[in-house]
């Protein structure tokens, strides 16, 4: 069965929609690479990241590969550079030593690709094969560029030096909310078979039966996390899994990444600004092991991926799964903190208009949320259009994150979207919320 989900209608003009999403992604890529000098574009700011100029040319290379070659059958423009920008041929640590295109050449290359793509967009088929159906390949490439834009923003966060980016602060929190909500036992539709630009790992829709559980209404705040730090959480092995403790020891973890103690207060570095850690913002830049230890300290656990998605999408009144927590409409500035409109998460309890049917807030935007789940294919998974997007990462090495962050563009974020990373990673915009089993009889 395909499952019971509300159906997304593609905007009437798919070509215009695709053009706008591609243009927004390119504007952001150019913003993120024009705000620093040549030197900062070619340097590697962290071994975890590529030089910014690699990301810039890589998005063009993928665009050429999937749109100009795969969709349109064109010949390679510059076959000699293909392998430089193949993420599987060269791990991030190696990329600075490759004979990469210069910033100027990279800009010229991606602009040339884009000019041809804009021409193609007017005449390409948008039905007749899965790759082109409802403009999928164009949507995939817009998402891909935005994913790299988020990665580039994480590189900016790692970069030493004065601030070069600015944005207004996000919305304040509103009203009151219960600490946690009960999600009663029962099946729901997980994943999607209808979302036109969903990626292979989100498919297909399938029924999952979920036992009753309680889940935090809002993400874990800096204040709550600081209480864990101050209770000696980083020095109590009983709160950590064996692997988590081994990593905590080896990496010398004592607080979230970018925090440090100054006099009697915790401060953090955020895009070059040093500021007191804001108590009511969701904690960010923690790894999965830190989230796991915090949850143990709080007498709770991380939600499974199915629990996260049920809290986000299931509407108990209709029995259907929504595209987003608030319904089926695309995210607006009222719903969620997405798309780098702000350079930080909003305080917990913001965006009541973005709450799910169960009243859970900030599931979309603000911070990516670690779940307890390994990254695996859903029943009936089929790799599409290439195994290296998802399938090669399936297994128990990676943990799933959900919901997107303030740095995630709406085109690459929805109730079904799945992100994944190693449980030790924390340069990403990662936070979490906690859950617990319901007691017998509760929500049965
Ligand atoms: C889905 C964020 C894990 O950045 O490694 C970009 C996205 N895949 N280019 C990543 C991706 C290919 C991917 N994540
Ligand atoms: Fe990529």
Automatic annotation (TrEMBL):
Domain of life: Bacteria
Swiss-Prot/TrEMBL keywords: Iron, Metal-binding, Monooxygenase, Oxidoreductase
Pathway: Amino-acid biosynthesis; ergothioneine biosynthesis
PANTHER family according to UniProt: HERCYNINE OXYGENASE, SULFATASE MODIFYING FACTOR 1, 2
GO molecular function: gamma-glutamyl hercynylcysteine sulfoxide synthase activity; iron ion binding
Catalysed reactions, semicolon-separated: gamma-L-glutamyl-L-cysteine + hercynine + O2 = gamma-L-glutamyl-hercynylcysteine S-oxide + H2O
Cofactors (names): Fe(2+)
Biased composition (Basic and acidic residues): 309-318
Binding annotation for Fe cation: 58, 144, 148
InterPro entries: CTDL_fold, DinB-like, DinB/YfiT-like, EgtB, EgtB_Actinobacteria, Sulfatase_Mod_Factor_Kinase, SUMF_dom, SUMF_sf
Binding site for gamma-L-glutamyl-L-cysteine: 92-95, 421, 425
Family under the similarity heading: Belongs to the EgtB family.
Every DinB-like domain range: 22-152
Primary role: Catalyzes the oxidative sulfurization of hercynine (N-alpha,N-alpha,N-alpha-trimethyl-L-histidine) into hercynyl-gamma-L-glutamyl-L-cysteine sulfoxide, a step in the biosynthesis pathway of ergothioneine.
EC number: 1.14.99.50
Span list, region Disordered: 309-339
Domain Sulfatase-modifying factor enzyme-like: 178-436
Top-level enzyme category: oxidoreductase
Protein name, per record: Hercynine oxygenase
